[in-house]
Amino acid sequence: MKRRHCLSLLGTTPLLLSGCASVAGASGAPADLPLRGTGDLGVVVARATGTLAIVDTSQRTLLAQVTGLGDLSHASVVFSRDGRYAYVFGRDGALTKVDLLTRRITARVMQAGNSIGGAISADGSLVVAQNYTPGGIKAFNAATLELVADIPAAYENGQLSRVVGLVDLPGRRFAYSLFDANAIWITDLSDPARPVTTQLPNIGRQPYDALVTPNGRHYIAGLFGEDGLAMVDLWEEKPRARRILAGYGRGQEPLPVYKMPHLRGWAVAGRRAYLPAIGRHEVLVVDTDTWQEVGRIPVAGQPVFVMARPDGRQVWVNFSVPDYHRVQVIDTTTQSIVRTLEPGKAVLHMEFTPRGESVWISSRDDHRVSVIDTQSFATQATLSIDSPSGIFFTSRAARLGF
Amino acid sequence: MKRRHCLSLLGTTPLLLSGCASVAGASGAPADLPLRGTGDLGVVVARATGTLAIVDTSQRTLLAQVTGLGDLSHASVVFSRDGRYAYVFGRDGALTKVDLLTRRITARVMQAGNSIGGAISADGSLVVAQNYTPGGIKAFNAATLELVADIPAAYENGQLSRVVGLVDLPGRRFAYSLFDANAIWITDLSDPARPVTTQLPNIGRQPYDALVTPNGRHYIAGLFGEDGLAMVDLWEEKPRARRILAGYGRGQEPLPVYKMPHLRGWAVAGRRAYLPAIGRHEVLVVDTDTWQEVGRIPVAGQPVFVMARPDGRQVWVNFSVPDYHRVQVIDTTTQSIVRTLEPGKAVLHMEFTPRGESVWISSRDDHRVSVIDTQSFATQATLSIDSPSGIFFTSRAARLGF
């Protein structure tokens, strides 16, 4: 906590806002910072203040707040494979590397004008950002944030498409969707100096987000411009996109949609996937062998995140306005709601502890993060954090597609 | 490496061999040890010398060797949820807590006369050992190794059964099998002062090892005394054991078995499980919806460990003597062998990096650990370690049943 003021000052220097800056020698251990493991660390985005809160999921406490991260609306985070560093993708195009142990920014680069998230390679060597402006992806050396590859998403007449749905795949490959070009691209960055991109065109109109299944096999993009989804079996020798779930979408008489669901929130539990219906108060159940819809579960509002507890026994759902004070829990053995919780105003995100014994929930307008026991539903702790949104734990480093 | 000699000396003091000993204040950071993340750490058991080698899976290097751990034949390891501490279960009944950051033993207790492994609760608070002598399980405070619960596996006439197949379940519960009592027990240690044990008797003759599926739902014990396996659906309100795979076993004309397969090595990939046939040169393929056998894959010897790469695309197999210089790789999309490797003499164990880009393989008689790229099968590094056996990475802390 001592370092907070120092970081505030550093965060406003032009150096940090204009380029790659190493503000801390990352090796030595300051005398006042004890050695500690990183497996139970996490971060909470406090977007109103451009702050990253560092939390401890064993003690359920706030350890520190790192300021000076810029515009963190819609920010997302990936972690180095040692769990020490968080890479924060800001909406303003900044990519910031934060050392969770020294609690400092160690590098920061303005890499785009408008960015919407990123990914990290399995070997931890490459951090990749997906950008709206200019449209495309950029790959950075994870140690230094030096730019190592720039792949503009160029289509007709040299225009650049906005990029969404970026995920990491085995072998330093990345899949992503081109919103304006109706395409899915897979870029192999085995040799960052010579990227090799496979383009799948005409996958459907306006892919707006995507996910990869936990095994890295199926890449699925939601379509904004039509009903249905585009799916690619990445294990096929020549991957191709095919259309699934033609009934998934806003339908012929579109309902008002208050917030687009997040596809990365999709839950795969056992052989079923649970996904947010768009505009409807329903969670759809899909068989992942046939990719056919096999059920619908009525819920308390328009679902935003639909997330499986790591063991798949439960699926937790939050909602868009006006129902975003509620969270519902589905038991996947009975496909029914077993609990409705009201953890606070404006629930924006949820994150499970690695083995799922607890879930952390951010209630933005109550400036609170609640830690809830997923078996008893008792509140185990609450943390005061200014306008919390995304919650990300270091255990993501060990998982594909996170 | 500086500390190696020091630890050798400590390892021979009676204090360490006779009881719980805290030999290092675990908080301060010694000046020569830099801060570092723990997500990419692991240990290799060097059983001939009672040594634990600490390795870095990002740099693919040996960081340190900690001596004085006693008899490490058949040793197994679990990790604290922060990834900082390894709990080592020695065959001689010792439970040793090793700090991977300071590279020291921080606590050690002789907890039984003959022990065969252990588990840790999801919340990281309890470490549990399964014992042959005296038969039963014991639970320890993970911070101090203080004994907090002792559950003797008492059956007819007060005899104590040897315990095998211990796994952690959600909610500080543990499942295990009683070799001599033909039973499976599930003990709830929510309140360690008042353990509640559910006993399932008559599950089949002589359960010799067991596993829990990655979602924590199915507990499966192999039977030494008859063909077939015992399976418990832990999600049922009143769990009960039923018999599956009546053809699994040595058969009516038993073949010689050179080494019993390890059931924890079982691979579940997608909806199929891959398991070592006993005494036969085959891997069995089982449908996890029906628990029926759906195929057999011929392999190069009697399989010991059959392990899925984290994404389930590949299954790696090692073998008992005389074929234990080989490792084979099965592609699960085609159910066929795609590669046979010879990484060294006496391959005893394999461990995948968290996202599966590499596998580490121990070749005991070549005193070598090989790191192999799972896509290209190229050897990325080799490490010299004295008689290496089990390899365990800290990412296990985030997984159920490991």
Automatic annotation (TrEMBL), chains A, B:
InterPro entries: Cyt_cd1_C_sf, Haem_d1_sf, Host-pathogen_enzymatic-act. The lineage of its organism: Bacteria, Pseudomonadati, Pseudomonadota, Betaproteobacteria, Burkholderiales. Keywords: Signal. It holds the Pfam family Cytochrom_D1. This is Protein NirF. Residues 1-26 form the signal peptide. It comes from Acidovorax soli.
